[in-house]
């Protein structure tokens, strides 16, 4: 220790730099939503609980992080992509309950606050929120040199949504005879990246592969698809009995979360349209089909359980919104399980 002693900055935390960076964030999170009653810099965010057209509002809350995909995204300067991943994943998780997203809070942890990078993160998060009808209302940016090395970032966020109590979609109305529709994914979304990174380490030649028209990195770093836009026209439709966002755990692990007692889902794997990234991963890693199904979405980003009489109409409305939904199974009597029939075509 020199004669002047230690400072907080010497320990790796630059308070002045953090203050300057946070000051730049205020303009980026500005919103036209007049329900936001205060702005950047307050101890907490104030949001007026006023929801037009909703008689009995129920708040829908969710926290999420983009997993180890963010390691690849930051390593290859795909910051906008991973910010979209985070917001889209959050929104999908509440949209399947019938909710509309309202407000998002973010957390940015880093080894050292690099002002340019942090400002880009906040800007991209705010953009993704605006594109989906909600606002980034605040959050936390924390410099943690003891936990993370300089240059390393960890993102997470929370969303608040709202749904009318009479319009909640929780799977309780699912019954035998219902149909299961698949809303397609564009690839990995935000799951399976620990396996993918292991393959990249052990078999780096996979990086040279083309996936359709895309290079390997472009294919695995495609932003998580957001289903809020396509689903808005069918929100509140009584023919929608349940929805499952297919993330970690795959089709089986997520679909059975919404199955009521006395039912099971029978999914025909041969009907699933599989994006080309999945057969490539399976081939390079010699991954068993069961493990692929448990780890990845395999092309089904969201599963919608619907009244059979409304299936065709709902699929048509989704198509009008730019989403090609198609039938992959049905609901039968059972004990809250998901049964697969036939094999994957890929």
Automatic annotation (TrEMBL):
UniProt main location, coarse: cytoplasm
Chain ranges of the PurM-like N-terminal domain: 75-163
Pathway field: Purine metabolism; IMP biosynthesis via de novo pathway; 5-amino-1-(5-phospho-D-ribosyl)imidazole from N(2)-formyl-N(1)-(5-phospho-D-ribosyl)glycinamide: step 2/2
Gene3D superfamilies from the UniProt entry: PurM-like C-terminal domain (3.90.650.10), PurM-like, N-terminal domain (3.30.1330.10)
Keyword annotations of the record: ATP-binding, Cytoplasm, Ligase, Nucleotide-binding, Purine biosynthesis
Database matches in NCBIfam families: purM
Name of the protein in its database record: Phosphoribosylformylglycinamidine cyclo-ligase
Upper classification of the organism: Bacteria, Bacillati, Bacillota, Bacilli, Bacillales
